[in-house]
Specification:
Number of helices: 4
Oligomer: single chain
Helix content: 55-70%
CATH architecture: Orthogonal Bundle
CATH superfamily: ACP-like
Distance between the termini: 9 Å
Shape: globular
Largest sheet: none
Order of helices and strands: HHHH
Number of strands: 0
Radius of gyration: 11 Å
Number of domains: 1
Length: 81
C-alpha cells in the first residue's frame, strides 16, 4: 500500500467507527487520539488487525497519535503483506 492508501484506509476506518464527525479534513499532524474517545481508538486498532492483519501492541499505541504517525507506523508493516 502507498502512504496515501494507508492514510485513506485510516480515515475510512475512523469514519466507520465515528460516522457523526467529518474526518475528510483530518490534517496529517492533527491529534487523532485526542479527537477519539478511548473505546473508539481501540476500535480503530481492532479494525486495523481485522482488515489488514496488523497487530498493534499496547506499548505502540503512542505511535498512533496522529494520522501521519499512523501512516509512518503502518507503512513498513503493510509492505510485508
Amino acid at each position: 500500500m502507498t502512504r496515501a492508501e494507508i492514510s485513506q484506509a485510516i480515515i475510512d476506518i475512523v469514519n466507520e467507527i465515528v460516522p457523526d464527525e467529518d474526518w475528510s479534513a483530518l490534517q496529517p499532524e492533527e491529534n487523532l487520539r485526542g479527537k477519539l474517545e478511548s473505546m473508539d481508538f481501540l476500535d480503530v486498532v481492532m479494525e486495523l488487525r481485522k482488515q489488514y492483519g496488523v497487530e498493534v501492541p499496547e506499548a505502540d499505541y503512542g505511535a498512533l497519535s496522529t494520522l501521519q504517525s499512523c501512516v509512518d507506523y503502518l507503512e513498513p508493516r503493510l509492505a510485508r503483506k
